[in-house]
From TrEMBL:
Residues 195-395 form the HDOD domain. Gene3D superfamilies: Hypothetical protein af1432 (1.10.3210.10), YbaK/aminoacyl-tRNA synthetase-associated domain (3.90.960.10). SUPFAM superfamilies: HD-domain/PDEase-like, YbaK/ProRS associated domain. Keywords: Membrane, Transmembrane, Transmembrane helix. It comes from the Bacteria. The chain crosses the membrane at residues 316-337. This is HDOD domain-containing protein. PROSITE patterns: HDOD (PS51833).
Length: 468
């Protein structure tokens, strides 16, 4: 048996149970770091599913999406991902920290995407963080001898984002609504979906944003008309994150001495919009809570913009707002498609290797990015914000106001390296950094400073959550 590794494995070995099972099957393997796992088409993504009958292990290539309806139809069962608490209990019983793609480890049926065995070798998660097992095609066939082989997964290459025109977004959303509702008689999307109007306080604040003569006193007057918003602004200014000297005595004091005109405008708009749609009761497990992700994204994007060369910098206020609202489409998605939001959440859990917006594209034909951008246009939000929301997952976008979308993408990619957000880690192309005038080291330095203030930021997150 070959147990070769690319880097030193003296301190790294498989759990005794897994090694014993592989030996019993006569399966040779190489223990390799994940960075040497090979193309996604040859990497195995395992998911443990369950229903009232019991569990099923699903194995697909990492360049595919597991469609729960398809695998359910294949087996004649209503399967859902095993909940995280139960999964951790199962793994701990085997002294594992991650789910390995080993059918012989589980006393469960196994279903395997047939294309996995088309390759000379495959790589499986070993159950050890950062390491995989690499098997030849023959050994992979031995391992999966009792699995049901079928074609039930969806190639990610078929889930490319649609063209990013506002007209296409509206059409995609209209089609999605018509597919899932009986409201086919309405012609206009705005009539079909009963979206609440932009909150009055947000309307007043957005008018101040474009008024060159507006000052701190004008903003304080608007904020003070909304008691909950006024309390929020004062509490933010008094938080450890801003470390303001002395006591905050008024809204005007909070704006003028601590937070600043632009920041308060964007915080207030974000709060007002967040209160328009309630956080959904369901959410994918192992994903960062909505407001935590929003606050971290806004803080990092603000730091990145300030680190850019002065001639390339976007408008800092709008940049912060784009970061704060980047995932707003998630709330609207839950509002428009409540019966199907649970289905989306379960697919996100079953496909941690797939970006959530691609899962939405497959399941309902429209993404949270399209929905958030569409609504921001309906509410006459600045173009920079709607464009940033729409193209936030496209690192190659170079169109109108691209700097805002590029900065949101870079921020999400950096945070994904620290397990903040949802979905897999996102690559950071050199061309993207070049457009923004940033080095990767500088960008990581910005994220590091934000994460150093994690405790203080968590206080801000709690204040936002309490206000909603």
């Amino acid at each position: 048996m070959t147990t070769e590794a690319v880097r030193d494995t003296h301190s790294t070995s498989l759990p005794d149970l897994i090694e014993k099972l592989l030996q019993q099957q006569g399966i040779a393997y190489q223990l390799r770091p994940l960075e040497y796992a090979g193309p996604a088409a040859q990497q195995v993504q395992a998911c443990l599913l369950c229903d009232s009958i019991g569990t099923v292990l699903s194995l697909i290539p990492k360049d595919h999406l597991l469609d729960l309806k398809r695998v359910g139809s294949l087996l004649g069962r209503d399967l859902q991902p095993v909940r995280d608490g139960e999964l951790q209990r199962i793994l701990s019983k085997h002294q594992l920290s991650e789910l390995p793609g080993l059918p012989i480890l589980f006393n469960s049926p196994c279903v395997c995407e047939q294309s996995l065995l088309d390759h000379n070798y495959v790589s499986l998660d070993s159950g050890l963080p950062g390491w995989c097992l690499q098997l030849s095609q023959n050994d992979a066939r031995t391992l999966m001898a009792k699995a049901s082989m079928a074609r039930f997964a969806v190639p990610l290459s078929s889930l490319n984002d649609p063209a990013g025109s506002p007209e296409q977004d509206s059409q995609d959303l209209t089609d999605a609504v018509q597919n899932f509702t009986a409201l086919r008689m309405k012609q206009r999307l705005e009539e079909t979906i009963e979206i609440p109007p932009l909150p009055e306080s947000a309307q007043k604040i957005m008018k101040l944003r474009v008024n060159p003569d507006a000052d701190v006193e004008d903003l304080a007057d608007v904020v003070e008309t909304d008691p909950s918003l006024a309390a929020q602004v004062v509490s933010w200014a008094a938080s450890p994150y801003y470390a303001a000297p002395g006591k905050i005595r008024s809204v005007e004091d909070a704006i003028g001495r601590v937070l600043g005109f632009d920041l308060v405008i964007n915080l207030a708009v974000g709060l007002a919009l967040g209160k328009t749609f309630k956080l959904p009761k369901d959410a994918p497990e192992r994903s960062t809570p909505y407001w935590e992700q929003a606050i971290y994204t806004a803080a990092v994007i603000e730091g990145l913009a300030k680190a850019m060369p002065r001639e390339k910098r976007p408008e800092l206020g709008l940049n912060y707002l784009a970061g704060l609202l980047h995932n707003f489409g998630y709330l609207v998605l839950a509002y428009i498609f409540p019966p199907y939001f649970k289905m989306i959440c379960r697919h996100v859990e079953a496909n941690p290797h797939v970006a959530p917006h691609l899962i939405e594209q497959h399941l309902i034909g429209v993404t949270r990015d399209q929905i958030g951008s569409w609504l921001s246009r309906c509410w006459d939000m600045p173009d920079e914000v709607s464009i940033a929301l729409r193209h936030q997952h496209n690192p190659h976008y170079q169109g109108e106001e691209h700097v805002y979308a590029n900065l949101v993408y870079l921020t999400l990619a950096l945070l994904s390296r620290h397990q903040i957000g949802s979905g897999p880690q996102m690559p950071i192309p050199d061309a993207l950094l070049a457009r923004l005038g940033l080095s990767e080291d500088k960008a990581e330095e910005v994220v590091g400073k934000v994460l150093e203030a994690r405790d203080a930021l968590r206080v801000l997150v709690n204040k936002y959550q309490a206000a909603n």
